[in-house]
Amino acid sequence: MITITRRVLTYICALTPGQICTHYIIIAHVKKTMVMLSHVNLYLKELSASLDTSNRYSNVLSKFYRYLSTLEKYQDVSVTSYHALVDNQDLKNWQIQRAIDRVAAQSTRPSTETIIQDGMLVYGFFEWLKKVGYTSCVSFRYKTWQPNFKDEALLAHIKTRARLVLDGKGIRALDREILQDQSYTLPTNYEMSCLILGYSDPVYAAIFKLSLGTAMRPVDLCRFPYAGAGRNQHIMPYENMTFVDETVDYHIANSKGKKSRTIKIHRLDLKALDDHYIKTLYPERAALYAKKYGKPCPPSQLFLNSRGVPVTRKMISGRSNDAKTRARRLDPSIRKSLRFYDARHWWPTIFLIRRFKSALLGELSEVRDAAAMQVLKQQMGHKHIITTYNHYLDLARVLLLAHEGYVNELFSNPDQSVQQFLEAPIFDDQSKGEPGE
To answer: Max alpha carbon distance in the chain (Å)?
Structure first.
């Protein structure tokens, strides 16, 4: 009997002395022996730039290895050699089995989309094996590793194997249920304002508004400095800064995937940050930091919670869920799907609407602007810019159609901070932030 588990490992990398690596590893428990899955763990080390990414990949790969351990093909094979025997059919059958298990349980999770994405993730692991010179039976010439979940014969097979009663839901019905919950639209100004007011600690409201104004990821926001150094030495409290333009450059180093980029921050968003956090809250919190850690708060650390502890990504996620719960308690109409990361989607959507206005409602060829693509690529830090651009064009079109007739009032004034934008009287019904409701 083989059990597959995961744990976080932190160590000093032997190849780059002084560098501390932290990532998940996968361990197989064979009888009373613990076996490190070396090939998988080397792959996870490649992803160590982001612990969240390492967590997701290790979770999916451990599920795949658990599945392999149940197959007769692998019964007399050491778990450390599974990777050398895996072929396209194994990967395809794993995805089909997950669909069978889901339908048998009449569950909406994992969705077909998730099953396919997880299959692609495992497929990527075997691509990496080939790239670095390890043996594998997975073929990269044919897509026989991916099941066609639209095929009627496959759907009938899944339903039969799941042993459903006559009125049981099939895979399509279950997918429709989860899609109804997952359909994404940009939060309204009202919803975002409620989330901001729902934070019990104002530091998270300040971070959320800075994300709205910059599209920075939580990991990058946590590193935003009180006073910058090097390429960011011009970043400091607003009153001490000199502005040549309406925006200033901010260099983000070692972001997701160890990538770096330079983004734009509007001076009014920096002023709002100064007024609502730096002037009013930071001095006291910096004193608490010094008392707690026995040293002055470094200028590289700006955001501190009410106990003087540096804010982390997990803290942002947890406090945002709490804020949403408070907001929904006061107004249940606020969507359950509201989350902190919506701020990152908001910036590019509003940027495209401000840039193209009503042209978004015409031919899409008219708004495929190379300069706009480059702005989004730089600000968002995305590698595949066409996919990113098309996604936010769709969001912008939906939002523009929903607020047709309000375009000039909504988006033509760039001389506003995020706070001013959210507080501006835009709609007929001020209570909900939607036209005509």
So the answer is: 71
CA-to-CA distance for 140 and 134, rounded, in angstroms?
14
Question: Which among 49, 81, 113 is the end of a domain?
Answer: 81
Distance CA 240, CA 232 (A): 14
Surface-to-core class of residue 347, CB atoms within 10 Å of its CB (0-12 exposed, 13-18 middle, 19+ buried): buried
pLDDT of residue 429: 39
Question: Do 12 and 106 reside in the same domain of the chain?
Answer: no
Q: Considering the entire predicted model, what is its pTM? A: 0.56
For helices 112-131 and 38-46, angle between their N-to-C axes, nearest 10 degrees: 100
Structural domain contains residue 431: no
Task: Please check whether residues 11 and 98 belong to one and the same domain.
Answer: no
> Is the CB of residue 311 less than 8 Å from the CB of residue 222?
yes
Q: Does 249 share its domain with 292?
A: yes
Size (the chain), residues: 437
pLDDT at 173: 58
The structure tokens listed for 435 are 């036209």
Angle subtended by helix axes 88-104 and 152-161, to nearest 10? 60
Structural domain of 247: 189-330
Residues (pLDDT < 70) of the chain are 16-17, 163-185, 257, 361-368, 382-388, 391, 393-416, 418-437
**Helix or strand run (H / E) with residue 23:** strand 20-30
Query: Residue 370: in which H helix or E strand, if any?
Result: helix 370-380
Helix pair 88-104, 112-131: axis angle to 10 deg: 160
